[in-house]
Amino acid sequence: MKPTDIGAPDYFHKVVDCQWACPAHTPVPEYIRLIAAGRYDDAYMVNWTSNVFPGILGRTCDRPCEPACRRGRVEDAPAEQGKESAASAAREPVAICRLKRVAADNKDDIRARLPAVPKKKNGKRIACVGAGPASLTVARDLAPHGYHVVVYDGDVKAGGMIRSQIPRFRLPEEVIDEEVGYILGLGIEFRAGKRVDSMKALLAQGYDAIFVGSGAPRGRDVDIPGRKEAAKHIHIGIDWLSSVSFGHIDKIAKRVIVLGGGNTAMDCCRTSKRLGGEDVKVIVRSGFEQMKASPWEKEDAMHEGIPILNYLVPKEFTQQKGKLTGVTFEKVAAKFDADGPGRRRLVPTGEPDQHFECDEVLVAVGQENAFPWIEKDCGIEFDQSGMPVVDKVALQSSLPRVFFGGDAAFGPKNIIWAVAHGHDAAVSIDKLCQGEDVSKRPPPMVHLMSQKMGIHEWSYDSEIALDRRYKVPWREASQTLKNIKIEVEMGFDRATAFKEAERCLNCDVQTVFSNTLCIECDACVDICPMDCITFTVNGEEANLRTRLNAPARNLTQDLYVSSTLKTGRIMAKDEDVCLHCGLCAERCPTGAWDMQKFLLEMTPAGPGCRVRAPRKEPVPA
Length: 621
Prior knowledge:
Elements: H1 9-15, H2 17-21, H3 28-36, H4 40-51, H5 54-60, H6 65-68, H7 71-74, H8 96-106, E1 125-129, H9 133-142, E2 148-153, H10 161-164, H11 173-184, E3 189-192, H12 199-203, E4 209-212, E5 218-219, E6 234-236, H13 237-245, E7 255-259, H14 263-274, E8 279-283, H15 295-303, E9 308-309, E10 312-320, E11 323-336, E12 344-348, E13 354-357, E14 360-363, E15 367-368, E16 402-404, H16 407-410, H17 415-433, E17 445-450, E18 452-454, E19 457-458, H18 477-480, H19 494-501, E20 509-513, H20 523-527, E21 533-536, H21 541-546, E22 559-561, E23 570-574, H22 583-587, E24 593-601
Parallel strand pairs: 1-2, 1-4, 2-3, 4-16, 6-14, 7-8, 7-14, 8-9
Antiparallel strand pairs: 5-15, 10-11, 11-12, 11-13, 17-24, 18-19, 20-24, 21-23, 22-23
Helix pairs in contact: 3-4, 3-8, 3-19, 4-8, 5-8, 8-19, 9-17, 13-14, 14-15
């Protein structure tokens, strides 16, 4: 193998598993250390810079960082520690998402630390269609650089799906108002209640760029017998949630069936319980493990006494003279094709149909995009599925000054992806307005800094905490099920947050090896608690992985390989299971190992993302 180039931005970035998995590349270990130190304002601003909505995401994020957390790979399962409960034997990641909320809940007034509103605009006008997370991110990134950003939305308050589709018992309105207010306070013009009905008309207003962040506003329906006849009692889930959020609906019948297995279905069933539903069921066509809802969302619904019934496909809405009486389902089973485990088919089992009585049905079987306001002849190309043809990096459409992001670009995802799209689109818009090629993306800034303070002392807490993951406390169901505005989760208190933060393995503090200082004493090999360091002869990667002290079987994680040492051997380190404990650096007698903090800063819109003009040398006289 060739020696590892640790100067490549992606190498150590990939080692910080949580940051690598986060679409917005939030420096997770950095803000977790700040929380442990009680520096909540600083932790909040680290988040705000990258993910824009710390308080909102700390309650609602889909948490792609947590399945990636190294703790889930290296922690001993409880059963291996002699505990009897096999059910709780899962290795659990750090509660990254809920620690983000800790920073938001405990910060002081941070408004003085937000970007200043420019006294003079730069002459460029940008329109954002929709006031959801993608558009608000674009506006936040561009406004401080003098852009006049106009945000249009049909609702009277900004926030988009954050405000309309996430129930208040999960996300209080005051949290939305605060964090959306930070952005609108940057000199952004918000045209509330102003729906855009024509792209041609918007283009005619002479905006330098237009960003479409209108989301995926149409919920899918179920076209089966009885749908039209019982339409009065059958509701599209996202529309129903919006009506609840804006106070248009405040009650529901006692017997409710929710169709669908995603997060919207979980919100629908839990909301129903708070609006009068007594017999609420979620019925899903897929298996429990294949449901699109996040595992914790399913757990929360079941914790509130809501059953989830699987492998049932709706066949008919039964009704009498327009009054819904129930839903008939066909029992199916999953069959996997021989050409691969991903090829799943649902086939009838032949069992008798099942009928469940109900008074109302909420249909939450998916969402899709709708662009009736974009004329077909305005220059924006759409594919066969009705989605805009968009460059996946620049987010630019076939009409150069129109960009798409969030659910409007690639279909329904989640808030953190919308934020990531907003950042990328803002860079593209800035480069477009400055006459630059939007396809040339700015590289991130990378810093490595030694954490050494003494012979055996580091500026970070390198001790490995053995605590299990701490649970976020809930309010009593007797309170929360009676009032839709009472938040269920209470969040960590400061003491518990400190203990949970200590579980972080500081994966951004990297083991940096200097082959010129190494005397090949193998002291680091002896001290390593995970046997992840090996001195051996070089070879092809597949062969080398099998010859390490602990074979490196996880091919998604790289090997750190040195150049050839004096004895002809190389140092090979398996990044997969390293605890970043620093013992190798403490034991090394020559300082060949050092613990260096890796900090990656994504280059945002503004001067830093632009191509710097070559400096003109003075012409000799």
